[in-house]
């Protein structure tokens, strides 16, 4: 068993990396590198451009894997590490400093420094305190809230050094850190690296410049993917290095599962950066939102209109009764005179088991008088069954009975408006008399107000008298009812009742000199049409929601492509695949949640406008919640693909992306 102190922190054995293969020519960039680096060393790897330095650094930093050979980190073969474990190494062990700084453009200096700490699960206050202290130490105390483009190259590089240090930065991997800087800023950065080396950090510096390399304690030269020179560990450093190495032992595995608090912090972070991303592309975000808003709003408005129409028919059905049919005499289709509906016919119909009630009706506008008040009113002569058949209660007094009907009793019940006309000022009409035609009738009741209703007749403006009294005293020329209202025994028996009535009458009359109107069936059919229409409208609206979702996907795919480099930076600083997935999912869900909320509001406004035009509209909470939930699910579904695409990016490829 070797002790930790004997182990080099980093050991490369015959490391090879080839690119290409298949269609492309095979390029061997690293051709069998073997190298030990101990904790606490300050190593410069120097070589001409194209010699494979960056490739080597990507492998050292676990951003890329070698094609063959071994990379032992603290004695463990990195080849056996999964993506999460590699992310953990990048987060906890390494800190990268790149030639092009690789800062996230939309974040401030301090936020950039905080990124690795976010993925390490540090809480917000500690994170920002650490970042501030580091920036302060690197002379950027007053630049914390500047974005990268408001900083000079030297300042940006110092920000990236602070970022490399925020999780400890035990091993700093610097790839041409001075390459893009003027000599003064370059010297500044080198001084910083030397200081860090002094403080015990392991520094691996990559450069093509021998003068820069000379500032390290150990210089390794590579050419064409092979080590051609190695100055070796300086004498007298052995002891110190062993001590460093003893401290450099890393835990075997990442801590199992982040704490609940860290999870929430990460989500908050994702929401924040999502918000920033949306805000940066306001025009595009707005258009995408519009798609979702229209989708959600139309689902809500369409369903509200459909439900309004359905309810309206339902009320009509309720007031007329879903079981009501109308029957009257009519000339037969084959020609000849109309038939005569007799009392015996009615009795035969009433005795059918499918029929609950039969009411013959005569009705016409007739002159009605009280004192010197006269009015032409529709006088409805029906039976005692009228209130029940029409589901119509009385407001005062009573309705006449079957007995009073057969006794030809001269009684009258007033509609709401008729009562107001003849008895203005609220006087009690019960017991008073009206002259209908030429016959006096006694008022015994007032019907409840029915209100506005479709149909030509205004029921509130009628008066109701018994059928037989009407025939004897008012409609004297009339030998048969104008029409007969028939109520089936149940909603399910309407059709059976219609057939039975037809059969009985055909038998009695010998020919079809009558007609039966089945309003219930008609309304039923209308109701079904309306329902089908609601479904259709809802479906169209749902399709528009899906179209909105596709818009979200489109924008998210674009976002992922635009921010490939940011994804690479996040991965290099320790983001796991699921962190990236979460960030982009959060972004698309945030988009659809916002769109959903606006859509609900827009749907309510659109429905409200319809109400102004007297279109019946009934909002349903279920539809609203449903549409909102659909929008959010759409965001998850259509956002998943782009988010997964982002999460699966290869860190090296992403970093090189634009
Ligand atoms: P250095 O950093 O020393 O300038 P690199 O490691 O960046 O060199 O590149 C070494 C060689 O590998 C170069 O010739 C480069 O063209 C090649 N190379 C780097 N990345 C790829 C890649 N993804 N595919 C093909 N060739 C690559
Ligand atoms: Mg390079």
UniProtKB/TrEMBL annotation:
<dbReference type="InterPro" id="IPR003439">
    <property type="entry name" value="ABC_transporter-like_ATP-bd"/>
</dbReference>
<dbReference type="GO" id="GO:0022857">
    <property type="term" value="F:transmembrane transporter activity"/>
</dbReference>
<keyword id="KW-0547">Nucleotide-binding</keyword>
<dbReference type="InterPro" id="IPR027417">
    <property type="entry name" value="P-loop_NTPase"/>
</dbReference>
<feature type="transmembrane region" description="Helical">
    <location>
        <begin position="532"/>
        <end position="557"/>
    </location>
</feature>
<dbReference type="Pfam" id="PF12704">
    <property type="entry name" value="MacB_PCD"/>
</dbReference>
<keyword id="KW-0067">ATP-binding</keyword>
<dbReference type="GO" id="GO:0098796">
    <property type="term" value="C:membrane protein complex"/>
</dbReference>
<dbReference type="InterPro" id="IPR050250">
    <property type="entry name" value="Macrolide_Exporter_MacB"/>
</dbReference>
<comment type="similarity">
    <text>Belongs to the ABC transporter superfamily. Macrolide exporter (TC 3.A.1.122) family.</text>
</comment>
<dbReference type="GO" id="GO:0005886">
    <property type="term" value="C:plasma membrane"/>
</dbReference>
<keyword id="KW-0472">Membrane</keyword>
<keyword id="KW-1003">Cell membrane</keyword>
<keyword id="KW-0046">Antibiotic resistance</keyword>
<dbReference type="InterPro" id="IPR017871">
    <property type="entry name" value="ABC_transporter-like_CS"/>
</dbReference>
<keyword id="KW-0813">Transport</keyword>
<dbReference type="Pfam" id="PF02687">
    <property type="entry name" value="FtsX"/>
</dbReference>
<protein>
    <recommendedName>
        <fullName>Pyoverdine export ATP-binding/permease protein PvdT</fullName>
    </recommendedName>
</protein>
<dbReference type="Pfam" id="PF00005">
    <property type="entry name" value="ABC_tran"/>
</dbReference>
<keyword id="KW-0997">Cell inner membrane</keyword>
<feature type="transmembrane region" description="Helical">
    <location>
        <begin position="618"/>
        <end position="641"/>
    </location>
</feature>
<feature type="transmembrane region" description="Helical">
    <location>
        <begin position="286"/>
        <end position="306"/>
    </location>
</feature>
<dbReference type="InterPro" id="IPR017911">
    <property type="entry name" value="MacB-like_ATP-bd"/>
</dbReference>
<feature type="transmembrane region" description="Helical">
    <location>
        <begin position="588"/>
        <end position="612"/>
    </location>
</feature>
<keyword id="KW-1278">Translocase</keyword>
<dbReference type="GO" id="GO:0046677">
    <property type="term" value="P:response to antibiotic"/>
</dbReference>
<dbReference type="GO" id="GO:0005524">
    <property type="term" value="F:ATP binding"/>
</dbReference>
<dbReference type="InterPro" id="IPR025857">
    <property type="entry name" value="MacB_PCD"/>
</dbReference>
<keyword id="KW-0812">Transmembrane</keyword>
<feature type="domain" description="ABC transporter">
    <location>
        <begin position="10"/>
        <end position="256"/>
    </location>
</feature>
<dbReference type="GO" id="GO:0016887">
    <property type="term" value="F:ATP hydrolysis activity"/>
</dbReference>
<dbReference type="InterPro" id="IPR003593">
    <property type="entry name" value="AAA+_ATPase"/>
</dbReference>
<keyword id="KW-1133">Transmembrane helix</keyword>
<dbReference type="InterPro" id="IPR003838">
    <property type="entry name" value="ABC3_permease_C"/>
</dbReference>
């Amino acid at each position: 068993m070797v002790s930790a102190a004997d182990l080099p922190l980093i050991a490369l054995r015959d490391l090879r990396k080839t690119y290409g293969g298949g269609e492309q020519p095979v390029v061997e960039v690293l051709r069998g590198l073997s190298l030990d680096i101990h904790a606490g060393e300050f190593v410069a790897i120097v070589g001409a451009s194209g010699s494979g330095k960056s490739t080597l650094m990507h492998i050292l930093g676990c951003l890329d894997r070698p094609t063959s050979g071994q990379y032992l980190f603290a004695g463990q073969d990195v080849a056996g590490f999964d993506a999460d474990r590699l992310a953990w190494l990048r987060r906890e062990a390494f800190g990268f400093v790149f030639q092009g700084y690789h800062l996230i453009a939309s974040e401030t200096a301090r936020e950039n420094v905080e990124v690795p700490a976010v993925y390490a699960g540090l809480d917000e206050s500690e994170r920002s305190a650490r970042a501030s202290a580091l920036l302060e130490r690197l002379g950027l105390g007053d630049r914390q809230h500047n974005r990268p483009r408001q900083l000079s190259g030297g300042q940006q590089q110092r920000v990236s050094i602070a970022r490399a240090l925020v999780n400890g930065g035990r091993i700093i991997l610097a790839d041409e850190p001075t390459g893009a800087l003027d000599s003064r800023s370059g010297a500044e950065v080198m001084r910083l690296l030397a200081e860090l080396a002094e403080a015990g950090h392991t520094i691996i510096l990559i450069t093509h410049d021998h003068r820069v390399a000379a500032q390290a304690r150990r210089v390794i030269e590579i050419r064409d993917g092979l080590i051609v020179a190695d100055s070796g560990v300086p004498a007298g450093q052995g002891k110190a290095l062993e001590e460093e190495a003893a401290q450099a032992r890393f835990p075997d595995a990442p801590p199992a599962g982040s704490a609940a608090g860290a999870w929430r912090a990460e989500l908050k972070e994702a929401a924040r950066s999502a918000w920033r991303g949306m805000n940066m592309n306001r025009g595009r975000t707005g258009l995408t939102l519009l798609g979702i808003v229209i989708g959600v709003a139309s689902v809500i408005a369409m369903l509200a209109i459909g439900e309004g129409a359905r309810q309206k028919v339902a009320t009509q059905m309720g007031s007329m009764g879903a079981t009501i049919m109308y029957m009257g005499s009519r000339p037969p289709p084959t020609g000849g005179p109309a038939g005569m509906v007799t009392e015996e016919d009615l009795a035969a119909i009433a005795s059918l088991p499918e029929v609950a009630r039969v009411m013959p009706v005569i009705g016409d506008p007739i002159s009605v008088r009280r004192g010197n008040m006269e009015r032409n009113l529709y006088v409805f002569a029906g039976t005692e069954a009228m209130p029940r058949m029409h589901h119509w209660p009385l407001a005062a007094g009573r309705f006449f009975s079957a007995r009073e009907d057969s006794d030809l009793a001269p009684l009258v019940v007033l509609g709401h408006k008729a009562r107001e006309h003849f008895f203005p000022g609220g006087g009690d009409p019960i017991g008073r008399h009206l002259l209908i035609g030429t016959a006096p009738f006694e008022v015994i009741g007032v019907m409840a107000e029915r209100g506005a209703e479709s149909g030509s007749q205004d029921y509130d403006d009628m008066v109701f008298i018994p059928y037989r009294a009407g025939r004897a005293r008012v409609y004297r020329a009339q030998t048969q009812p104008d029409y007969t209202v028939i109520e089936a025994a149940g909603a399910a028996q309407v059709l059976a009742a219609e057939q039975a009535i037809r059969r009985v009458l055909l038998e009695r009359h010998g020919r079809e000199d009558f007609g039966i109107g089945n309003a219930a069936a008609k309304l039923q059919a209308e109701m079904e049409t309306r329902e089908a229409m609601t479904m259709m409208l809802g479906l169209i609206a749902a399709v528009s929601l899906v179209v909105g979702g596709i818009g979200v996907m489109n924008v998210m795919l674009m976002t992922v492509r635009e921010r490939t480099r940011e994804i690479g930076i996040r991965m290099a600083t320790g983001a796991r695949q699921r962190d990236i997935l979460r960030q982009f999912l959060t972004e698309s869900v945030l988009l659809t949640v916002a769109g959903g909320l606006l859509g609900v509001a827009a749907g309510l406004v659109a429905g409200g406008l319809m109400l102004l035009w007297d279109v019946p509209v009934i909002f349903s909470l279920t539809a609203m919640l449903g549409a909102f939930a659909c929008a959010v699910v759409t965001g998850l579904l259509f956002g998943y693909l782009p988010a997964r695409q982002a999460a699966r990016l290869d860190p090296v490829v992403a970093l090189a992306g634009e």
